[in-house]
Design brief:
about 130 residues; mainly alpha; 434 Repressor (Amino-terminal Domain); 2 domains; about 0% strand
Length: about 130
């Protein structure tokens, strides 16, 4: 599979039109079409932007090898099958997780989380 075919396949999976991708990248849909048909290649400056919009790595676009997506947020935002509320919740969770894993403080133990959940449940049942 070629670079253009991978871009087209990923765009179609996300249900993004060539026009929508072009608008997000500040280019014409004709340019996207040419790239997808392997009649032209994206510049080195454009390649990371395409990867980000499609929620994949540059490595995947170029080689086809799937690797861990280091920033899942663009993929969440690009997924048209998710409702806006769900996207916001997922992005919030990812950001919270990233903040927790990059901070010096250790993550809560499962028992701490259970205690916090019990407190939240009690407040929901018996609001102050």
């Amino acid at each position: 599979m070629t670079l253009g075919q991978r871009i087209r396949q990923r765009r179609q999976i996300l249900k993004i039109t060539q026009q929508e991708l072009a608008d997000a990248l500040g280019m014409t849909p004709q340019h996207i079409s040419a790239i997808e048909q392997d009649k032209g290649a994206p510049s080195l400056a454009l390649l990371p932007k395409i990867a980000e919009q499609l929620g994949v790595t540059i490595d995947y676009l170029v080689t086809g090898k799937e690797t861990i997506i280091t920033d899942i947020i663009p993929a969440i935002k690009a997924d048209k099958s998710l409702k806006l509320k769900v996207k916001r919740l997922l992005v919030g969770l990812v950001e919270e997780f990233q903040a927790a894993t990059t901070s010096e403080a250790p993550l809560d133990s499962p028992s701490d989380c259970a205690e916090e959940q019990s407190e939240e449940d009690a407040q929901t049942i018996n609001p102050a």
